[in-house]
Amino acid sequence: MKKVNLIMPPALELYDPSAYQNLGLLYLGGALKDKYECKYIDLSETNIIPDADFNLITVLQATYISALETVRLLAGNTDSKIIVGGIEVTVNPEKAYSDFHPHCAVCGEAELQIENILNNNITGIHDCGVVKNLDEAAFPDRDLIPLDKLRNVSSIHGDRYSGDGASTTIITSRGCPYKCTFCCKIPQTSYFRWRSASNVHKEMVEIKTKYDISHFRFIDDCFTANKKRVFDLCSLLKDNDFYWMCCTRADLVNASLLKEMYNAGCREIAFGVESGSQRMIDIMNKEETIEQYIKTFKLVKEAGIKIKILLMENYPGETPDDVVKTMDFVKTVQPDKWTLSSYVALHGSAKSMRMEPYGKFFYPMQESKLKLWLKNEEWKYK
Ligand code: SF4
Fold it and tell me: What's the CA-to-centroid distance between 95 and ligand 1, angstroms?
């Protein structure tokens, strides 16, 4: 059986680069299960890349520089085929092809086509488009992650609501129909599709049975964008002792849905608020209002679900007055948790596209951190 490495280069700027297993790579592992011998290689945790016929490397904006270094090191030490994919390749395949010189640059969602790409030695830029029916995709192969790592995720994940604290990520829909100007909006991220409630439930039961995990972090962009599907999923989950958290918009929940979600194990919802200033919310094209947030958060609290709000500073146009409004907003709504991130021009976002004609591609990676990583890694190929 031919061998495949599924390689995750490190996001060196993150507090904990290995906090999340890369579900995209695990989906590829699920698609290739029993046809290729796959290994998941998290380069923030290991410096050993086993010998393989194919090295599949996922490339994010946050890992672009470390992915380039990984390819450079691999290309000089092995004659295995290098295939790059992931969101950064999808956003700009020509640039990725020219930067990485791979055997193949795969853009789009590859799980239904990866076997064909490997079997038929497809080269150049290959566009997989989107997976329209997500129920057709095999479940992510979590067997590729050591059990203790899979169950014992780092503290960066925050609260766990199940007894033993074991927790894992799962995705039940892809894309989001809204058009916030800071968000990556390419066809794969704009076209909203969802898995059926029964398909999601089946994966959750499998995770519980195989790995004894009963706390789930739904990492969908907008978990409740299709309310009927969430009602259906909640009715399936009522009889399981599962706990979960999700992320959605304030205009996509109501009292009856929140009640069902709580009864089905939902204990925390994260809302991308970004700013407490209506002026900034409008500039970001979020199509929400401060009044909506206040009203919805009251309902969420009444349902017994914790609220986490995600805030962003330094979005172009933000003034000191907007910052004061955001602070006042937090004091008013009293969330259980909040996070503050600094604005980064995400490739594929409306804001970033205005800079791209001038060749300004932003890859967050301090040279000093990269050098330290390379110095610390005694690269090995077995
Ligand atoms: S920020 Fe959230 S709601 Fe806005 S476009 Fe992105 S995923 Fe959709």
Answer: 25
pTM over 0.70, yes/no: yes
- State how far the Cα of 228 lies from the Cα of 139, in Å rounded to an integer: 23
The atom number, within ligand 1, closest to the CA of 286 reads 4
Q: Is residue 51 within 8 Å of residue 16, measured between CB atoms? A: no
Asked if the model's pLDDT at residue 273 lies above 80, the reply is: yes
**Exposure of 226 in the CB half-sphere (CA atoms within 13 A):** 17
**Could you say which DSSP state residue 356 is in?**
G
Q: Which CATH architecture has domain 3-127?
A: 3-Layer(aba) Sandwich (3.40)
Q: How far apart are CA 164 and CA 23, in angstroms?
A: 23
The residue that leads in pLDDT, 251 or 13, is: 251
Instruction: Single out the residue of 362, 369, 376 nearest to residue 60, CA to CA.
Output: 362
**Backbone phi and psi for residue 82, each to the nearest 5 degrees, phi listed first:** -100, 125
Ligand 1 centroid – CA 227 distance (Å): 17
Question: From the CB of 183, is ligand 1 less than 6 Å away?
Answer: yes
Tell me the per-residue pLDDT of 66-83, one tens digit each, with 9 for 90 and over. 999 999 988 877 789 999
Range(s) within the chain of domains with CATH label 3.40.50.280: 3-127
Alpha helices in the chain (DSSP H): 23-32, 64-75, 87-91, 93-100, 114-119, 147-151, 187-190, 197-211, 227-237, 255-263, 278-283, 290-302, 320-333, 350-353, 367-376
Tell me the pLDDT band of 176, cut-offs 50, 70 and 90. Answer: very high
Determine the distance separating the centroid of ligand 1 and the alpha carbon of 70, expressed in angstroms. 31
Residue 133 in this model has a pLDDT that exceeds 90 = yes
Q: What is the pLDDT of residue 120?
A: 97
According to CATH, the superfamily of the domain at 151-376 is Aldolase class I (3.20.20.70)
Which residues make up the CATH 3.20.20.70 domain(s) of the chain?
151-376
Cα separation, 276 vs 290, whole angstroms:
7
Residue 229, ligand 1, Cβ within 6 A: no
Least confident window among 28-42, 46-60, 118-132, 354-368: 354-368
